[in-house]
């Protein structure tokens, strides 16, 4: 029945329901196979002066938060374009570099982890619908470029990771052919991971998958590569992110679809995307995080949230599956039964349950899948997301981890866009 | 107050409480470090005609169940002492070999997995109290000597495992020095393992631990070794068993101690040992298992339970910690909340809770630790244990997995022994 605006809301709602059902069907049939690891310049359209950042597009350098600044400047120093931090900052501020939202290339970036032309990217292919997602190698816990550290050890480690490590990993992958990343995620959910902030089981499994095929010609290189790989408990995170990009791309460009296909922060704004409004971001100021800070740090030290890793939540993982990860729930300051309640609330705003991502502690119920912005508006329940916390100043790095709530305004605006 | 028997029960109960408190203190302080992998003959007193079997002592070959017979005969064929199965059986029945309970050497054996003089044994050292436990390498799922398979592929795989694999593993261990096995178990409990039948997380972690130090001189050997190690989801089981032997030895030989230090089956009888009655077994006919059978098999095909792996339960793992392993609980035919109840019942018969083995789904309560046979008698609640199920005929192998209940009679007799 048409209302005064000339829009037939009931008919449109039915169209949206149909679009969403189609989107869920595609998401559930999509796959994610890790097929390669190559420099960005060989995979996507990226110039030498471009840096891909997480979240919705930034207006320019003046909007860049501390960790992002640190990472860009470290990159300029690494490439010999700047000798000091101050010089790097000057170059960046002069307009000689360009910040571009990674999402425009279906790349998932992390906090300050900018992606330059030479950055090694995992290539994640959905062989069903042909979409491809990308993400950079994870440096492990402690000081990391992606959290804004740029000291000499951090930079040396990063350089090694992008060269010696990447070469070895690529060779093992070539021998394997491909790795089914969703199969590992399914198992990891039975092993205490929620598929976003906790990646301990999935990281152990990917290490075991590639280990037999690692090049052994040089024993020293082999040992360095394997020590890094086997000790990095969040190595799998970018694989989840790239898989999220590949899988959720199957729900993009579906007219009338009200399902969230991405959520991300750029350090200033938080944004979401929905299937029916491709490339449009619905934004609001970044929300604060609830969580635990490492000793000596407080909320006042925190950088505003930045990262694309919440694409995990959009495919039914992360905070939406927190009930699967008691050890993480406790780390985030709550009890385990509170974590069950967090997941249970998310079912109210999702249109489906994941057919193969199952939560043991909820008697193997599928994870909440397909956040419908209309349901968020109707119930007033906003989606939650997990995130690491970076220090607001460049050069310090990760200072905690926690979870946040998507600003209601993002979902309200996204829903309204479908009734325009 | 003395009763008619001349025994002062109240005073004795206080002595038992004190003994148990001392035993728990020792169990909680004991450690388990994997330090070596060597042939049994270099580690323990074992003759060339001796075969160590699981559980309480058997009277002789006539008592050996199908899987045990299969494993002994396969061993005779492997060593060139028999050409055929029939010939092997003849030799074994003639009295030319001797079956010895593995527990007399602080070795943990598995189902039909007999241990001969040349069998490679993991050496698990408790550096705190100086005890050492041993167990043989696990062959992985599918056909396995330890479940009574003895076909040519099973034997070839076993021979390879005991030679090429053992040599590589030993070398990586030498470079590492030692591995803290309890530290891995603590993490595995947060990753969906219960530390006995499900060893998926712990197996992935031990592979990650040794991988960087594996010998790489021969690329083919490296690949074979790593493919076996990284695909074997129960590789860690014998490490848990040897750790159980090392740790629980600290509670042996404590006068008046009523805590169970071992439980095991020999295919005929089920037996338990308690700290206050060293080397004495309290036995009853083996109980049936509740569980799931692989397609095509039923309870009628099952061999009576045989194995020492239930030493895991005596140190607070396995069925006592089943609440930590939703995926296993479901496999065993129950719901996850039923698994919570199984663990919760076990607290009633245990004197303590493990200080570092924690169950996330029970809000990180310590696992039930220290089964007190007096409490079993008082409450009528018998301890439970997890187990694989072997076919009763030699040559077929594993046909399922499940859990059983320790015969009440074992606990009653053990408790009574302390009041004699």
Q: Share of helix among residues of chain A? A: 25-40%
Characterize the quaternary organization of these chains: homodimer
Q: Give the number of DSSP strands of chain A.
A: 16
**What is the H/E order of chain A?**
HEEHHEEEEHEHHHHEEEEEHHHEEHEEH
Radius of gyration of chain A, whole Å: 21 Å
Distance between the termini of chain A: 16 Å
Kindly list the characteristics that best describe this protein.
homodimer, alpha+beta, Enterococcus faecalis V583 fold, 13 helices, 16 strands, 36% helix, 20% strand
Overview of the molecule:
The structure is a homodimer of 420-residue chains. By secondary structure, chain A is an alpha+beta fold. Chain A folds into two domains: 9-29 and 254-418, Alpha-Beta Complex (v583 fold); 33-241, Enterococcus faecalis V583 fold. Chain A is 36% helix and 20% strand. Chain A has 13 helices and 16 strands. Chain A has helices spanning 9-29, 66-78, 85-93, 152-176, 181-188, 200-210, 219-231, 237-248, 311-314, 326-331, 336-347, 373-379, 408-418, and strands spanning 33-39, 50-53, 98-101, 107-108, 120-125, 132-136, 179-180, 260-266, 269-274, 282-285, 290-293, 306-307, 350-359, 365-371, 384-390, 398-405. In chain A, strands 4-6-5-1-7 form a five-stranded mixed sheet. The longest helix of chain A has 25 residues, at 152-176. The first copy, chain A, is globular, with a radius of gyration of 21 Å. The A-B interface holds A 187, 190-192, 200-201, 204-205, 207-209, 211-213, 216-217, 219, 222-223, 226-227, 230-231, 326-327, 330, 335-337, 360-361, 363-364 and B 187, 190-192, 200-201, 204-205, 207-209, 211-213, 216-217, 219, 222-223, 226-227, 230-231, 326-327, 330, 335-337, 360-361, 363-364.
């Amino acid at each position: 029945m048409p209302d005064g605006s000339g829009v037939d809301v009931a008919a449109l709602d039915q169209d949206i329901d149909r679009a969403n059902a189609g989107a869920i069907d595609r998401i559930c049939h999509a796959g994610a196979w890790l097929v390669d690891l190559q420099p960005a310049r060989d995979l996507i359209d990226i110039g030498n002066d471009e840096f891909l950042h997480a979240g919705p597009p930034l207006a320019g350098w003046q909007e860049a938060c501390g960790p992002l600044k640190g990472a860009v400047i470290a990159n300029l120093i690494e490439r010999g374009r700047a000798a000091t931090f101050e010089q790097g900052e000057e170059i960046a501020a002069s307009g000689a570099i360009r910040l571009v939202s990674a999402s425009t290339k279906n790349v998932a970036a992390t906090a300050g982890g900018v992606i330059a032309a030479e950055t090694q990217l995992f290539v994640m292919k959905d062989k069903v619908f042909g979409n491809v997602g990308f993400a950079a190698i994870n440096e492990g816990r402690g000081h990391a470029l992606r959290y804004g550290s740029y000291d000499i050890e951090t930079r040396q480690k990063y350089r090694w990771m992008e060269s010696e490590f990447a070469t070895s990993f690529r060779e093992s992958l070539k021998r394997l052919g491909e790795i089914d990343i969703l199969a590992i995620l399914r198992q990891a959910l039975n092993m205490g991971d929620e598929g976003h902030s906790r990646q301990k089981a999935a990281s152990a499994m990917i290490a075991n998958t590639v280990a037999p095929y690692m090049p052994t010609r040089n024993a020293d290189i082999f040992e360095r590569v394997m020590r890094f790989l086997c000790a990095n408990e969040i190595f799998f995170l970018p694989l989840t992110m790239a898989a999220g990009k590949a899988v959720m791309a199957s729900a993009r460009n579906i007219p009338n679809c009200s399902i969230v296909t991405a959520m991300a922060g750029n350090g200033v704004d938080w944004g979401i995307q929905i299937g029916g409004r491709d490339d449009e971001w619905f934004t609001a100021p970044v929300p604060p995080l609830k969580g635990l800070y490492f000793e000596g740090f407080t909320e006042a030290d925190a950088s505003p949230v930045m990262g694309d890793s919440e694409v995990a939540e959009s495919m039914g993982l992360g905070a939406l599956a927190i009930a699967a990860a008691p050890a993480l729930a406790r780390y985030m300051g709550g009890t385990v039964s509170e974590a069950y309640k967090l997941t249970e609330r998310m079912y109210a705003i999702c249109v489906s349950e994941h057919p193969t991502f199952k939560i043991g502690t909820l008697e193997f119920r599928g994870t909440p899948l397909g956040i419908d912005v209309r349901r968020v508006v109707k119930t007033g329940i906003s989606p939650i997301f997990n995130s690491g916390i970076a220090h607001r100043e460049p050069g310090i790095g990760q200072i905690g981890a926690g979870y946040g709530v998507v600003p209601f305004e993002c979902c309200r605006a996204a829903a309204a866009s479908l009734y325009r």
